[in-house]
Amino acid sequence: MEGMVKKPFSFSLKLYKDIGIDLGTANTLVFMKGRGIILTEPSVVAIDAKTGDLLAVGDEAREMIGRTPTNIVAIRPLKDGVIADFNITRMMLKYFISKALKGLGMVKPRVLIGIPLGITQVEKRAVLEASHQAGAKEAYLIEEPVAAAVGAGLPVAEPRGSLIVDIGGGTTEVALLSLGGVVAGKSLRVGGDEMNQAIVRYMRRVYNLDIGDRTAEKAKMEIAYAIDPVQETYLIKGRNLATGLPCGIEVSAAEISESIAEPLQAILEAVRATLEKTPPELASDIIDYGMTLTGGGALLKNIDNFIAKHTNMPVYIAEDPMSCVARGTGRALEEIKLLRKLAVSLL
């Protein structure tokens, strides 16, 4: 880890309400101390293109993607796990924080936000600045694979190697953890979104069919397999690029699975690269305890078998893998000593 937080933490329960945020490329999850995960919504904002006014956030905004008139723009303000549009991210954070604190008066929260491994100091400051402008009294950062490991129940503070593979929408974070720090790790800007785009490209190339990102995601969730696809088909609807007319095509699970092979290979290479940097003593721990998959990508069918086959290591999927980062931020907030150990400070 980069070091300890600079400011001392306040212990006053009257002045603060603690919130942990998994600010993901695809989804944002909010954890409130004492209540658990209170909000799970897509990281999408809809604005009026002419006035810049906020029209919708989260689920309501996501329903608008690909369906809006020219004066309404649905935006995903985070790209590859980092802020791509600062002002829109600030508006989105303010909305989520306000929604989480609804009914709690004028309380300003203390916020802990998960960030990808290897993002720049500028990107870290952008997250903190957006949090403060969104209403946070104090804001702290925690690396996503560390939070995911805590949320998955791994003993990250102990002198034991824990290998976490957090496959999110925009990034895949692979990290070897021991004594509260990252011993070796790799952040890859490939995740569920890249798999969706791979399906979009495949349908255009093979079937001359133009489909949207949401359609590709549904196909991925329904019939995509990392390895050993079953014999079934799925109807994908879109627009024929030759005629310009709407049409539907039956596609096999094997085809959809083949289309996502490239991003899966990139994730596998990131796992291998981290294993190659693993010190011998910690490598023995990985052999004994295996690696843990978290994030929405862990829900891809047979992905545990795929990684296990190519690494000869035991692979386990965490319970409720999508919420691991959010639950990890919550546990860190509940245990001040753990929070002091795991929070990232700026140089």
DSSP summary, beta strand count: 18
Give average pLDDT, whole number. 88
- Give the low-pLDDT segments: 1-15
Give the distance, in angstroms, between the N- and C-terminal Cα atoms: 12 Å
The computed structural class is alpha+beta
Tally the structural domains. Answer: 3
Q: Considering DSSP H and I runs of 4 or more, what fraction of the residues is helical?
A: 25-40%
Strand content: 25-35%
- Helix and strand sequence: EEEEEHEEEHEHEHEEEHEHEEHHHEHEHH
Shape: flat
Main sheet attributes: strand count, strand direction, barrel closure? 5 strands, mixed
- Gyration radius, rounded: 21 Å
Class of the largest domain in CATH? Alpha Beta
Within the CATH hierarchy, at the fold level, what is the topology of the largest domain?
Nucleotidyltransferase, domain 5
Strand order of the largest sheet: 3-2-1-9-10
Mind telling me the CATH superfamily name of the largest domain? ATPase, nucleotide binding domain
Provide the CATH architecture of the largest domain.
Answer: 2-Layer Sandwich
Fold topology:
Blueprint (H helix, E strand, L loop, with lengths): L17 E6 L3 E6 L3 E7 L2 E4 L5 E4 L1 H4 L9 E4 L2 E2 L2 E2 L2 H15 L9 E6 L5 H13 L4 E6 H8 L10 E6 L4 E7 L2 E8 L3 H16 L1 E2 L2 H11 L9 E8 L5 E7 H7 L1 H16 L3 H10 L1 E4 L8 H9 L3 E3 L6 H11 L1 H7 L5
Parallel strand pairs: 1-9, 9-10, 11-17, 17-18
Antiparallel strand pairs: 1-2, 2-3, 4-5, 4-6, 7-8, 11-12, 12-13, 14-15, 15-16
Helix pairs in contact: 2-3, 4-11, 5-6, 11-12
